[in-house]
Write a structure and sequence with these properties.
By secondary structure, the chain is of the alpha/beta class. The protein has six helices and ten strands; from the N terminus they run βαββαβαββαβαβββα. Strand 2 and strand 3 form a beta hairpin. The protein is globular and about 50 Å long. Keywords: ATP-binding, Cytoplasm, Nucleotide-binding, Nucleotidyltransferase, Transferase, tRNA processing.
Length: 216
């Protein structure tokens, strides 16, 4: 059985965060609100939990799971190196709707799917998500929906699709119009936009001081 916690009230939010942290540490799955859409999350370093996440979504390892972090400094321990362009983007847009693809640290013992030695990182702009991430550390988080279905913008939508495959649902209220994060690949030197979403191409170009035209 899964449990829903109303995180819009202080007492229930505290109970929900404690329950979610316990479930994540035990290798279970939680649904949490983010600043884009609701996400389904697991301990990023628990391979079995990540496989359970993919199974809950009906998705294979060919679509690896992104990682959410609770602070800027966490990134340094997860990647091989943080280039200046990445730091510039982090300072400008984190927490927020920007995901960065970087070469992962070779020492990391995790299995996020077929990442080809990279990791997709983001720091979400949502207090409930940040509180949980700061409690349990980096989490593998994907949109809270079955593969091929619309992303969930509420706990009700997430629960309808994922049901009891998730142990704890943290209800932060409706997310509003679901907008995916923008994804920028920084693994090849020059930045490349893989998906334009919450952060526009123009905003990225202005911050980096380069024209990220359609050919990038």
């Amino acid at each position: 059985m899964s449990t829903v916690y109303d995180c819009t009230t202080p007492d229930s939010r505290e109970q929900g965060l404690a329950a979610a942290a316990g479930i994540v540490r035990a290798g279970g799955l939680v649904v949490l609100p983010t600043d884009t859409v609701y996400g389904i999350g697991a301990d990023a370093f628990d391979a079995n939990a990540v496989r359970a996440l993919l199974a809950a979504k009906g998705r294979g390892p060919d679509m690896p799971v992104p990682v959410l972090v609770g602070s800027w400094s966490t990134v340094d321990g997860l990647v091989m190196s943080v280039p200046q362009q990445a730091r510039t983007l982090i300072e400008a847009f984190w927490p927020g709707g920007l995901s960065l693809v970087l070469p992962q640290a070779p020492s990391l013992n995790w299995d996020l799917g077929e990442t080809r030695g990279t990791v997709n990182l983001r720091m979400p702009l949502h207090p409930v998500a940040l509180d949980l991430l700061r409690e349990v550390g980096p989490m593998a988080v994907s949109s809270a929906n079955r593969s091929g279905q619309a992303p969930a913008s509420s706990v009700a939508e997430a629960r309808e699709q994922l049901g009891d495959s998730v142990q704890v649902y943290l209800d932060g209220g409706p997310s509003g119009e679901p907008v995916a994060s923008t994804i920028v690949d920084l693994t090849q030197g020059a930045p490349r936009i893989l998906r334009e979403g919450a952060v526009s191409r123009a905003e990225l170009s202005e911050v980096l001081g380069v024209d990220l035209g359609a050919d990038w």
